[in-house]
Amino acid sequence: PSAVALYEALEEAKARADASWTVPLHGETPPAPTPPAPPPPAAREPWTRGARVLVGVSVGLALVLGVWWLTSRQEVAPVGPPPESAWTATRKDDDPVKQQTNAPPAEAPLLDLESLLRKLCLGLSGGALQACIAAHTPVPPERPAPPPQACPAGAVDAMTALGLRVGEMSTVEWTRERPGRAIPIREDSPVFVFGDWDTPSGQTALPNNTRLSGRLYFGEGRVYGRFTEARTPTGETYPVCMELWDDEDEVGLKLSASSEPGKPKVVPDTEVRVVDRFQ
User: Fold this and answer.
1) What are the CA-CA distances from residue 176 to residues 56, 209, 267, 269 (Å)?
2) SS3 of 8, please?
3) Which residues are bridge partners to 273 per DSSP?
4) Strand partners of residue 149
5) Which tens digits make up the pLDDT trace of 116-153?
6) Residue 170 to residues 208, 220, 260: CA-CA distances in angstroms?
7) What are phi and psi of 274, to 5 degrees?
8) β-pair partners for 213
9) 86 in helix, strand or coil?
């Protein structure tokens, strides 16, 4: 469905590759086995890694000290109006109109430390480049759970007209292509109604495979979902107000243990709950 999905599928396939993947194509002559290259001397490898680290740290320290020295050498323009000329002083007493004083000149812009370091890092390679980049790469903070929020306009009335009541829950799924396996998600990943969502009277409020879209929020080991639109397989759309819930009757959903930094994963199915306000 997308380039991201293709990339994830290829990465997953590559992770499962073994010796059986090297079988030649039909009619192709298997290549002669290449003798393995001799391993480098054991005594040299620690020195090679140590040299990379030492060079990287030295370069990073030199860059920081150089930027500090350049910043300290900057001259800041004096604050206040410039000295008046003799003609301006004379006109002040004669002109009944109040003279406007010139605005103080803006201070010279400070050096952009991050931009400068990134430019200087372009000339490095290997361990020195890694150390230089890591020296000024910010670590994104963990985002907390989202604050309370009102439902979209008309969502409660639309759900009431469909026969949905506040507090009702229904099973949804992220995808049917990978049953039983954790799947990757993003902030705009939708969920789909699993089976018809029927009302207590037996009428279908939302048919099977209705798409619920909105926004996902990632907290510490948990994802929170707020869905604001329902689109049926036949194209009808309704404003809704539904939250992601887990099987322990708690708002949000625990991330899968197979999640990685920047690559959250969840179980393929969960539940959503009808609400009149996002909590």
Assistant:
1) 48, 10, 12, 9
2) helix
3) 169, 243
4) 278
5) 555 555 555 555 555 555 554 444 444 567 889 999 99
6) 11, 25, 29
7) -75, 130
8) 229
9) helix
What's the rounded Cα separation, in Å, for the pair 258 and 102?
Answer: 63
Closest C-alpha to 22, from 33, 38, 36: 33
Closest CA to 271 of 158, 143, 167, 161: 167
Task: Return the exposure string of 169-196: e unless at least 16 CB atoms fall within 10 Å of the residue's CB, then b.
Answer: ebebbbbeeeeeebbbbeeebbbbbbee
Residue 222: phi, psi to the nearest 5? -150, 150
The helix (H) or strand (E) run that includes residue 87 is: helix 86-94
Residue matched to tokens 């539904």: 242
What residues form DSSP beta bridges with 170? 272
Strands (E), the chain: 149-150, 169-173, 183-184, 191-193, 197-198, 204-206, 211-218, 222-231, 237-245, 253-254, 265-266, 269-274, 277-278
**Residue-level length of the chain:** 279
* Cβ–Cβ under 8 Å, residues 44 and 81: no
Give this prediction's pTM.
0.50
Most confident of 101-105, 129-133, 159-163: 159-163
Under 8 Å CB-to-CB from 166, ≥6 apart: which residues?
156, 274, 275, 276
